[in-house]
């Protein structure tokens, strides 16, 4: 074990953050370039671009949960998380190289199937990212003690990842998206493959529940389904939406309403019913389920912005060429990520120590909802869009750092990979709903301001749900610090 790991030195936190940074950079490239390429180079419609983006959440549904379950219980290539980081990083770099060559690949196959090839590449890229995303976050919890040090690990992760994300959008804005893609492929390969060899993982993960009542038991399918009960409505809509889209059917509005009702009912059940009503087996899952519910609405709003912001800029800012529109979106996301890179370690971590992580997160989400409302009402000039993207970046800074630390202390540490995978369903299922349902709504709407109305409402609902979530930080602090590596 390196001395910097034994001391939990800042340089170790930086090293520990690099694999996650690689996956974040790959996502930044995808966010900056994918919709732009598909719209300007290949002429795909908004709803078709949404279908391509739906490939990512599908990969996440299977990839993150399965990899999480497997990585908790295997050891090879000198680690538990290391093998998946290496494989995912290599594959992600290759798929980035394929992005600007969708037309070449389609021609080589002898078919005019741009949409099919784009979906395949996007699916493979997202599958690669999802193979690694879960382990890059789980490894932070594996090698840091619960409490402030773990929170520090995740805030460092976001600071470094966010800094590289800013660089990604700067490259796209200055030199163009093609330069960003090729630079990204090299960078992702290097910082995902090299750092894992300098991080020593614990061979045994001991259970360190913050809830003493949590029973030790093997994971069953029933327990997994119960754990994600707040997401049942999202899951039902995602499956039916994909089937309808692939079969060329139109989803019945009654069915969409039924899925919405299931979401509302399952969330109300978790937040309103007494813990004792769920029994000894499932009651310990309630804190985790509440976080899933709140986090899902955060991502429904954020993913809507990621996928469809280009359509808003196209409509609201007149006189832009395709390249200029791409630059406006790139600069917007640059500023968005710059705020997210600066705040976690400099502002959010100190603030969380004073008022708690949940209150800090809640405050940031409220500001984000206000920022989205501002874009809807006033985002009719480039400079105002840039300014308001800085405001919503405050919520993004919290979203990509604090929920991981909050969630990691509500579950059994020996099953961190599995729960991290389930937690990420609160990201990928809303992403799928945004790609399918929101895509149809945005495509049909004459006023693309609908995009940021959806964003604002989703973030407001999320903030309200976080009001009812308990911060476990105080409990952890009273239990002392566990040695690194468990």
TrEMBL record:
Highest taxon above the source species: Bacteria
Transmembrane segments: 12-38, 50-71, 83-107, 154-175, 181-199, 220-240, 252-272, 292-313, 325-348, 360-378, 384-406, 418-438, 450-469
Pfam families per UniProt: MFS_1 (PF07690)
Protein keywords: Membrane, Transmembrane, Transmembrane helix, Transport
GO MF annotation: an example: sucrose:proton symporter activity
Entry's Gene Ontology cellular component terms: membrane
Matches recorded under Gene3D superfamilies: MFS general substrate transporter like domains
Subcellular location: Membrane
Membrane topology field: Multi-pass membrane protein
SUPFAM superfamilies on file: MFS general substrate transporter
Protein name: Major facilitator superfamily MFS_1
Organism annotation: Haliscomenobacter hydrossis (strain ATCC 27775 / DSM 1100 / LMG 10767 / O)
